[in-house]
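Following up on my earlier thread - several people asked me to post the actual chain instead of describing it. Fair enough. Here it is, all 154 residues.
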Amino acid sequence: MRVQIVNRYVQAALDVISKETQLPVQRGGLLLEGNPYATEDVTAVIGISGQLSGSIYLSMEGTVALKLISAILGQETSELDDLGQSGIAEMANVIAGTAGIQLAEENIETIINPPLVLVGRGARLSTVEIQRLVVPLTTAYGDVKLHVALREAV
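Reply from S.P.:
Thanks for posting it. Predicted structure:
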């Protein structure tokens, strides 16, 4: 996968999380991780198709998810209820959409599928034959990991 494609998703995640929380977000180093991936407490999954195929994940500890949702909603959230899950899903959706717009400007058309939120640690997700690149994003609330598992469609 081309670095420019990964960078579009990373930059979109940095921008969206920073804007939603009104706090700085720092990017960590790029990691190549194998399959399958064992989910963290909260993992939002967005399928990508079009000229790219695969998925992106946004994963985090439960405490990080609660703090992010609290910041986004402007009120303390103590459990990851339907509203909290919807907020995490929408954040992942906006990240994928923002990256998709940037890629379209480079003539790479993508289609994003509705988000899926997995709550609970240890579910095994596999991108089969697609490499999964992971970028930790450090927030004031803890780390959010962006997983990019995409390949250019044939």
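The first strand starts at residue 26 and ends at 27. That should answer part of your original question.
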